[in-house]
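2024-03-11 09:14:02 INFO worker-7 job=invfold-0412 stage=load source=structure_tokens
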């Protein structure tokens, strides 16, 4: 999925897509449940991992958090921060070409950088977003 796309199923243009990677399958499902419905301008989609040879490919690769207008990206990062603070796990977030590794103890130091990256993409002209 591209970093930016017109997603008619979300009711408008997507401004920013966060790709959130969680190693543990149980935590992945918990995060998906937590992020779903947090903000009306945020759409959460589980993206399957390409199947390995001779497997059915039932594992998820990442959680796509597609954010629309009106600061939805910052709201999504805030919801993600609450979830990460309650965990010991490590979460990888990708926004365009930028990648962040966030651990429960690092939330306060790293997530403000994630919010800055989201806001920069929200404010960038359409041809500069990626």
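2024-03-11 09:14:09 INFO worker-7 stage=emit residues=130
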């Amino acid at each position: 999925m591209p970093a930016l796309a017109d997603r008619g199923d979300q009711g408008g243009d997507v401004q920013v897509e966060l790709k959130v990677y969680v190693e543990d399958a149980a935590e992945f499902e918990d995060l998906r449940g937590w992020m779903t419905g947090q903000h009306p301008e945020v759409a959460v989609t589980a993206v399957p991992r390409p199947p390995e040879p001779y497997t059915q490919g039932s594992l998820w690769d990442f959680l796509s958090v597609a954010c629309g207008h009106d600061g939805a990206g910052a709201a999504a990062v805030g919801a993600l921060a609450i979830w990460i603070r309650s965990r010991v796990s490590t979460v990888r977030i990708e926004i365009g070409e930028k990648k962040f590794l966030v651990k429960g103890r690092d939330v306060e130091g790293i997530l403000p950088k994630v919010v800055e990256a989201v806001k920069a993409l929200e404010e960038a002209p359409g041809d500069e977003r990626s």
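2024-03-11 09:14:09 INFO worker-7 stage=report msg="The CA atoms of residues 61 and 105 lie 24 Å apart."
2024-03-11 09:14:10 INFO worker-7 job finished
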